[in-house]
Amino acid sequence: MSVLLKKGQFTTIGPEEIWKIYTNCHGIFRGGGNTKAPKIVRADGPRRKDLDIRVDPDTGLETVYPNRTKGLSFADSIQTLAEKKLEGQVWVIPKGSDIRGDLVFNIKDSDHPLLNVSKPMSVLDMTTLLTELASLMEPCDLKIGKHGQIVEKYPGALSKVENG
User: Fold this and answer.
1) Does 87 fall in a domain?
2) Where are the beta strands (DSSP E) in 82-161?
3) Model-level pTM?
4) Contact at 8 Å (CB) between 100 and 11?
5) CA triple 142-50-32, angle to 5 deg
6) 94 φ/ψ angles, rounded to the nearest 5 degrees
7) Mean pLDDT of the 33-49 span
8) What tens digit of pLDDT does each residue of 64-108 get?
9) Residue 29, Cα to own-chain centre: how many angstroms?
10) Environment class of 9 (CB within 10 Å of its CB; exposed 0-12, middle 13-18, buried 19+)
């Protein structure tokens, strides 16, 4: 079974379907990390501008709300990260990884999936899910330089991986 992406429209898919879209690749990539961590979440939670975060009027807690047009950026390839000049260590969620929790991917362009929530949840709960996701990610043997150049053999990382 395949998932149909509608050109120019956001499609939301669950984590169990992500590998039906990215079938011919090693995984999905994220830039901006360092050799120790993929930098997917900070101590105070996810980056606010990437998500729809508001104070829940009932609980008074900062809450992440589903939003089809927002999310934490990933890419289908290292080249896509380089074109966007996302400086730093490149990390990958290996193909077939079991992404758990109430996370979804919002995809408008197949080269740029956005990770978001499927239902409202506290920033703390999302931080926990992102920390679990970060533990699945592996460093690649390269980084993106200041001007978008791909620098190979970056110290402290695994062997280079490329998409098909």
Assistant:
1) yes
2) 88-94, 103-107, 114-117, 121-122, 138-144, 150-152
3) 0.86
4) no
5) 15
6) -60, 140
7) 89
8) 999 999 999 999 989 899 998 888 999 999 999 999 889 999 998
9) 7
10) exposed
- Report pLDDT digits (tens) over 112-121: 999 999 999 9
C-alpha span between 43 and 77 (Å, rounded): 27
Class of residue 141 by CB neighbours under 10 A (exposed 0-12, middle 13-18, buried 19+): middle
> What is the domain extent for residue 128?
11-152
Residues in the chain: 164
- Residue 101 backbone phi and psi in degrees, to 5: 90, -175
Q: Is residue 5 part of a domain?
A: no
Ordered alpha helix ranges (H), the chain: 18-21, 78-83, 123-136
Cα 162 from Cα 92, distance rounded (Å): 10
Q: Two tokens at 120?
A: 């409202």
Please list the residues that pair with 151 across neighbouring strands. Answer: 143
Q: Work out how many domains the chain is built from and give that number.
A: 1
Strand partners, 143: 89, 151
The answer as to whether 158 is a domain residue is no
10 Å CB burial of residue 117 (0-12, 13-18, 19+) is buried
